[in-house]
Amino acid sequence: MPPEISGATFWPGYCLFLLPEHSAKSCYSVHKKILDHLNSVIMLFNHTLKLTYINNAGEILFADSARHLAGLPAESLFKNANDAIIEDLQHCLATNEVLVDRELSLEFPKQLITANLSATPLLEDGIVTDVIVELQPVDRHLRISRGEKLLEQQHSARMLVRGLAHEIKNPLGGIHGAAQLLDMELQNAELSEYTRIIIAESDRLRELVDRMLGPNKPPHKTALNIHEVLERVRQLVLAETTGQISIKQDYDPSIPMLKADLDQLIQAVLNIVRNAVQALDNQGEITLKTRIDRQATINHRRYRLAIKIDIIDHGPGIKKDMINQIFYPLISDRTEGTGLGLPIAQSLINQHQGMIECSSKPGYTVFSIYLPVENIDEQP
């Protein structure tokens, strides 16, 4: 039961005070239902920081029932979180000050979340007796924000590359044609060798510019199983690395069929996996993981179902000053890299209304591909 204050009932997080004489049980049921339908986790701790109330969202987060969680100290509930949280809650009780922390990384039994935390002290006769803690997960909002930035980044990069390609290809065509004409006029074989170098290098530059522009044809979509794509990529990479790389499969067999271009998806995933192989210096383990993401927001649109593909490696990670630039063309932290693999992969996935995200720290890098699932039965 929530605490009683001067003959009224207080409901954590909502400041709802009810006179006790009229249908108190009914009111209790209504307001408990409100709290239990919130996405935010609502917890009430007493003056010794022991839990006295938690809503349904909290039970899901801690993977335990309110009955078992009741009475546990805050130190136990937040044992994998920053120690400063406990100190802040103690300060909140001691000083009657509201606490707000944003974008905290918190580890719980079955998940790691990013959340905004607020703690509000409760007064009775001028004395702080309890503290309300609200945890509001913001992972989805952060992912949408990152997705919007990636979409803007991709659009800006394509506009820049298209403008640059136009400025390069026109004079390049002239150089190529002039070199061919000169080659036909030259009688000296040694001099002709120079013109052939000019022709070959101009062809290489034109091919590079075309690769920068990305795919120039729309996807040819057919019904396929995403694991067919991943298995093809796995076989290709294992053949290239001759046993020095192991690729672990963590597949969800319940994932539905997808309408997509098989070759384009293979190319996109292959580009990312090859990057992971290079990050591992051709030795180590890569994990290919698939899951269903429900009610996913991708590129400003919301989809009932999406397929999430995680490509995980345990290499040195991507430098912090590079992580926001890796999808720009010609950006690479390797001297031998062209900086085109990831932008091309992003462009191919964008053509399927999907997107690629990346998070990285030393020892753990994950590229996540999100692909919306279309209803194949409704396709012509």
Which stretches are poorly predicted, pLDDT < 50 over at least 5 residues? 1-22
Compute the number of structural domains.
Answer: 3
- Look up the CATH topology of the largest domain: Heat Shock Protein 90
The fraction of residues assigned to DSSP E strands is 25-35%
- Secondary-structure-based class equals alpha+beta
Global Rg: 29 Å
Overall 3D shape: elongated
Helix content: 40-55%
Number of helices, where a helix is a run of at least 4 consecutive DSSP H or I residues: 10
Q: Can you name the CATH architecture of the largest domain?
A: 2-Layer Sandwich
Overall average residue pLDDT: 79
- Largest sheet, order of strands side by side? 5-4-8-7-6
Question: What is the end-to-end distance?
Answer: 56 Å
What are the secondary-structure elements, in order, as H or E?
A: EEEHEEHHHHEEEHHEHEEHEEHEE
Look at the structure and name the CATH superfamily of the largest domain. Answer: Histidine kinase-like ATPase, C-terminal domain
Give a short account of the largest sheet. Answer: 5 strands, antiparallel
- CATH class of the largest domain reads Alpha Beta
Find the count of extended strands (DSSP E, 2+ residues): 15
Notes on the structure:
With 380 residues, the chain is α+β, with helices and mostly antiparallel strands. The protein folds into 3 domains: 4-137, Beta-Lactamase, CATH 3.30.450.20; 139-213; 217-380, Histidine kinase-like ATPase, C-terminal domain (Heat Shock Protein 90, 2-Layer Sandwich). 41% of the residues lie in helices and 29% in strands. The chain contains 10 helices and 15 strands. It is elongated. Residues 1-22 have low confidence and may be disordered.
